Amino acid sequence: CATPGVxxxxxxxxxxxxxxxxxxxxxxxxxxxxxxxxxxxxxxxxAARARLPPGIYVDPDELASLQQHNSTKVVLIPDAIDxxxxxxxxxxxxxxxxxEPDSRCSGCFRAAVPVHGRYHRPAAQSExxxxxxKSPEVLVCCCDSGLSAECWKPAEVEAPCLGKTRGPCQWYxxxxxxxxxxxxxxxxxxxxxxxxxxxxxxxxxxxxxxxLILAAVCKYGHFS
Length: 224
Known about the structure:
The chain crosses the membrane at residues 195-218. It is found in: Endoplasmic reticulum membrane. The radius of gyration is 23 Å and the shape is elongated. Residues 1-8 have low confidence and may be disordered. The chain has 2 domains: 13-190; 192-223. It starts with a helix and ends with a helix. A hairpin with a 4-residue loop joins strand 1 and strand 2 (25-33). Helix content is 18%, strand content 34%. It has 224 residues and is an alpha+beta fold. The relative contact order is 0.21. The strands form 2 sheets. Strands 1, 2, 3, 4, 5, 6, 7, 9, 10, 11 and 12 form an 11-stranded mixed beta sheet that branches. Strands 8-13 form a two-stranded antiparallel ribbon.
């Protein structure tokens, strides 16, 4: 087994995450500090594997636009996501987020991806639904160098080695310290007692809009 010195060196990695902005449309910022084990991962691809609960999602079209401008590198599993599905009909999403070196400290990496809150069922009392976002897993992929067996363990990842031009290679995971076990996102929801009012307002808005469209067609339309 590993010596106490090696075990101590392997426990230096730290993961933090933040949710930026407010409301339904946020940015998930993930930071990784590898510390002493960062020397092992020099020249390797570093990623964070996060499981997004049904209450939030990543928009594939928005992600594709960002990737065209090299703003982010993300692999979504599944890659087809129903962005209109409510929270109670949506699946969990697995996100593999490629991380870039953070110039502010040695052995530090960071990455951000836009996430969006889904609509939840109306609540009886609270005007916010709580979405629990667990801490991501740290992964590295090294095609050109080896990793310390005491610190890094092979991981099952069905994704290419991000940032590499060669074929697929083995991903490794790292047991890390968590600055926070989980992050709780508050998503605004409607109240059940307002459902009748919402239905009436929606019906009136639909009738008014339809009447305006019909009036415009009758006034400006050309009928043969």
